[in-house]
């Protein structure tokens, strides 16, 4: 108190002798006569601050003195070593300059042993010197940083009048940290063995950043709050969020002027530079996958713009839990209304901070979507999951599944609108990396919760199958043909029933929803969980219908054959569409992603398509029932031709009068023509070719074994009779090919042997396999040819 009285009794210096800061300080503190009453408390406060500053000065002097003593001690040691080296060099010079023969041995010893050791010692000393200089340089820089960080928390810089000084100290600290990182990077490249030095520097820098970053963010938040950010959302949501109308609320950042705008830009730039520094450090410290994750952190300054908006928006979201479309509309409206002005103002600052690969447009949109996903994951989806669990326990159906699918529809619609915002920057979505696509999609909420993806897939599958059950009821779905069932890859008409088109439309819808997922791995998982069971359900429907037709009549009547043919047509069309889809890059990516998964059982070989296993099942069904159609027709033919093949006498007699074909063979031929006419009319052309070829192959074996190898004695009249019968049979197949005898190789070559004269036949058999080939017999073995020749009877 006494010192205060003395201070007040001293005469005041002229105002012109005072510093500008002192005049400003006095003007701020003494604005009226009433302020003079607080003089004593002000003097006490200034004394306390002076004491604090004196203590800090003493600490700095102490640190400086300790550093100087350490450097002096180290320098003395270095000087001592250098002196010893100089002495050895002088000794070396005197020895090498002496021409006395007695000194030759000593000189050789020096050149051969001591000189390399000396050079090694010089290199070691130089390394120590470089280490010392680098250590002192880094210690000095880190000391500056620690002092600047400490000053931001001192009482003096916490005063409102010194806020500018606090920001300046932070900027200086970031600049110095950049110099430290430059030095450490150079050490890492030039001296990789100095790991302890680098580790010690990183430890002290980490401690400084642990204080500097939160303080920088706190300063940035305070500045945003003083600017009026976030803008009021009441204008956006008072009458319901209508995204088609522009916002009436101005952007506070875009209306800044003068020093305020300069202050915000400097603050934003400092935060970006701090993030750039952190990115450089992580790039040096980390490797592999962790390095990529660290380098793609969201832009801190943009996050600070989004966070207060998210908090303000959640107050409105809580009113719309039963109307989620309002939530998406409000988020989209905020995102759209401010994106262009933010990009115009902030993108040049991001570029100036050299934050490579960052787009303010993408960061703003991505951060808004991230906040939306966070709200959905915390507040909306848990409600639906809880309702689904209650439904599974009680067995009482609720609206949870419908609400879930409605929410997913809203998310997909929202993502499509977001794509248009991104496209305005001139960047195609196909060029954006997958990890960036994830942050630009609201469906990324499923990427963070795979269990919810499985729930969604189960709901989607049940909904798809329920719709298909309704659409595929009745017989008309099997009789009505698909209109325009012709694929882009060809002009083939598959004659497919409409049921295949129903399943393909449903599967296409599943694939479209699958495309919305941002990650390829989750697309493939979703398609396996929904698409594969849908395809299996289609096959089950076809199989059940074929088995019903087979069980009633064993496919002996025309109606049963038509049913099976329709199912084969449906599977052929379905298989062809799936194969055409799988040529798209979308499916190829999913297939390659699946083949890369360790232990994946869905694909056994790398490079296969995502639907290859399902396509294989469809193909196996089609080929199995196509062969069964051939077997049924062949079985009927064999039953009706049994008497024809057992009649031995007919090959020794002339043909019946007025008959061009054997009577016992007419029934089998008639059966063949009737069945094949039905099959040709109802089956698609590709599979019909398979049917008649399988049938021709089966008949060739049956007639060859039953007649030609059946120990029948063939006279000349019998050979003619058999030739006429086979020509009629070939004629039936002549409707579908130019040379039908080519599909009956054994019968055709057997006829060649029977038509030979006696001498030619003997010569062919005498020459063995080569002689048979010269006479055009390539499909029969020598034993088979000999057996046919043995049963040939020539007239004496």
From TrEMBL:
<dbReference type="InterPro" id="IPR042044">
    <property type="entry name" value="EXOC6PINT-1/Sec15/Tip20_C_dom2"/>
</dbReference>
<dbReference type="GO" id="GO:0006888">
    <property type="term" value="P:endoplasmic reticulum to Golgi vesicle-mediated transport"/>
</dbReference>
<dbReference type="GO" id="GO:0070939">
    <property type="term" value="C:Dsl1/NZR complex"/>
</dbReference>
<dbReference type="GO" id="GO:0060628">
    <property type="term" value="P:regulation of ER to Golgi vesicle-mediated transport"/>
</dbReference>
<dbReference type="GO" id="GO:0006890">
    <property type="term" value="P:retrograde vesicle-mediated transport, Golgi to endoplasmic reticulum"/>
</dbReference>
<dbReference type="Pfam" id="PF04437">
    <property type="entry name" value="RINT1_TIP1"/>
</dbReference>
<dbReference type="InterPro" id="IPR007528">
    <property type="entry name" value="RINT1_Tip20"/>
</dbReference>
<protein>
    <submittedName>
        <fullName>RINT1-like protein MAG2 isoform X2</fullName>
    </submittedName>
</protein>
């Amino acid at each position: 108190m006494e010192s205060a009285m003395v201070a007040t009794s001293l005469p005041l210096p002229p105002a012109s002798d005072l510093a500008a800061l002192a005049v400003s300080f006095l003007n701020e503190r003494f604005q009226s006569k009433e302020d003079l009453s607080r003089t004593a408390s002000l003097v006490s406060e200034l004394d306390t601050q002076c004491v604090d500053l004196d203590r800090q000065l003493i600490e700095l002097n102490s640190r400086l003195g300790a550093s100087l003593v350490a450097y002096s001690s180290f320098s003395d040691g270095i000087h001592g070593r250098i002196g010893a080296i100089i002495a050895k060099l002088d000794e070396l010079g005197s020895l090498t300059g002496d021409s006395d023969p007695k000194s030759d041995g000593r000189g050789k010893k020096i050149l051969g042993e001591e000189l390399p050791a000396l050079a090694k010692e010089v290199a070691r000393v130089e390394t120590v010197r470089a280490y010392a200089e680098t250590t002192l340089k880094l210690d000095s820089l880190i000391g500056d940083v620690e002092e600047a960080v400490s000053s931001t928390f001192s009482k003096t810089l916490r005063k409102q009048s010194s806020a500018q000084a606090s920001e300046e100290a932070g900027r200086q600290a970031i600049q110095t940290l950049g110099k430290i990182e430059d030095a450490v990077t150079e050490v890492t490249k030039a001296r990789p063995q100095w790991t302890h030095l680098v580790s010690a520097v990183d430890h002290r820098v980490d401690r400084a950043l642990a204080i500097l970053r939160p303080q920088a963010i706190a300063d940035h938040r305070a500045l945003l709050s003083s600017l009026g950010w976030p803008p009021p959302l009441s204008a956006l949501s008072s009458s319901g969020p209508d995204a088609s109308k522009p916002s009436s609320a101005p952007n506070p950042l875009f209306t800044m002027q003068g020093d305020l705008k300069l202050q915000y830009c400097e603050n934003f730039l400092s935060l970006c530079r701090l993030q750039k520094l952190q990115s450089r450090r992580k790039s040096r410290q980390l490797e592999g996958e962790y390095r990529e994750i660290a380098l793609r952190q969201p832009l801190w300054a943009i996050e600070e713009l989004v966070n207060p908006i998210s908090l303000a928006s959640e107050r409105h979201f809580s009113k719309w839990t039963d109307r989620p479309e309002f939530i998406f509309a409000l988020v989209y409206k905020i995102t759209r209304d401010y994106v262009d002005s933010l990009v115009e103002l902030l993108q040049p600052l991001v570029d100036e901070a050299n934050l490579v690969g960052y787009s303010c447009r993408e960061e703003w949109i991505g951060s808004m979507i991230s906040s939306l996903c966070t709200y959905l994951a915390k507040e909306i989806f848990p409600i639906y999951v809880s309702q689904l669990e209650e439904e599974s326990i009680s067995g009482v159906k609720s609206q949870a599944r419908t609400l879930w699918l409605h929410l997913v529809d809203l998310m997909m619609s929202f993502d499509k609108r977001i794509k248009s915002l991104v496209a305005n920057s001139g960047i195609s979505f196909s060029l954006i990396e997958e990890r960036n696509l994830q942050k630009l999609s609201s469906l990324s909420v499923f990427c963070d919760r795979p269990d919810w993806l499985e729930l969604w897939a189960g709901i989607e599958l049940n909904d798809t199958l329920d719709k298909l059950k309704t659409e595929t009821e009745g017989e008309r779905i099997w009789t009505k043909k698909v209109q325009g069932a012709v694929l882009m890859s060809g002009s083939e008409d598959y004659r497919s029933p409409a049921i295949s088109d129903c399943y393909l439309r449903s599967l296409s819808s599943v694939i479209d929803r699958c495309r919305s997922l941002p990650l390829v791995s989750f697309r493939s998982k979703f398609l396996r969980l929904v698409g594969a069971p849908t395809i299996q359900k289609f096959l089950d429907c076809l199989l059940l219908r074929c088995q019903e037709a087979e069980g009633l009549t064993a496919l002996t009547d025309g109606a049963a054959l038509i049913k099976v043919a329709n199912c084969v047509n449906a599977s052929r069309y379905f298989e062809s569409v799936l194969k055409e889809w799988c040529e798209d890059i979308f499916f190829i990516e999913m297939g390659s992603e699946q083949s890369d998964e360790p232990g994946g059982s869905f694909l056994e070989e790398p490079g296969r398509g995502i639907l290859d296993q399902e396509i294989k099942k469809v193909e196996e069904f089609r080929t199995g029932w196509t062969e069964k159609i051939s077997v049924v027709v062949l079985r009927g033919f064999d039953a009706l031709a049994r008497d024809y093949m057992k009649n031995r006498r007919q090959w020794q007699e002339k043909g019946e009068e007025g008959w061009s074909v054997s009577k016992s063979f007419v029934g089998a031929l008639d059966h063949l023509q009737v069945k094949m006419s039905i099959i040709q009319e109802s089956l698609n052309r590709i599979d019909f070719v398979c049917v008649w070829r399988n049938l021709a192959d089966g008949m060739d074996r049956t007639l060859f074994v039953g007649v030609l190898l059946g120990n029948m004695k063939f006279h000349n009249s019998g050979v003619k009779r058999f030739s006429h019968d086979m020509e009629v049979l070939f004629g039936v197949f002549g409707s579908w090919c130019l040379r039908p005898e080519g599909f009956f190789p054994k019968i055709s070559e057997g006829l060649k042997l029977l038509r030979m004269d006696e001498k030619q036949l003997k010569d062919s058999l005498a020459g063995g396999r080569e002689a048979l080939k010269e006479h055009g017999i390539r499909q029969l073995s020598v034993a088979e040819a000999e057996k046919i020749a043995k049963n040939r009877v020539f007239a004496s």
